[in-house]
Request: fold
Amino acid sequence: MRALRNIAIIALLALIVVAVPGGDNAARAVVAALGIAFLALVGFTGWQLYRQNRLSYLQLDDRARALLLGALGAIVLMIAGADELTETGLGLIVWLAVLGASIAVIYRVWTESRSSY
Reply:
């Protein structure tokens, strides 16, 4: 019964988007607002992680800090350009390769920082 109710709610919302003039624009605005809220939460989470691990971050040497920030910057760029990069097969491969390399660099910096204690 609940599933039927949920399907009816979704169908009603879809009907509103299709039938009401400007419904498409309203739906795009809602999706854009959700995307902005998601990215703001990601940024806030990053800030909280920095605040919690500030001492560990400051104890990294310059090379490790540069690698960490470069990898995080590459991930941010991949998120920003995901729509354009994933349209083609080669772009998707590049996107996945950069994300994989960035995650590997972050993992390596983390393991090296833990082994020095």
In short: The longest helix spans residues 23-52. The helical segments are 2-19, 23-52, 54-59, 62-80, 82-85, 89-115. The radius of gyration is 21 Å. Residues 73 and 102 are 9 Å apart (CA to CA).
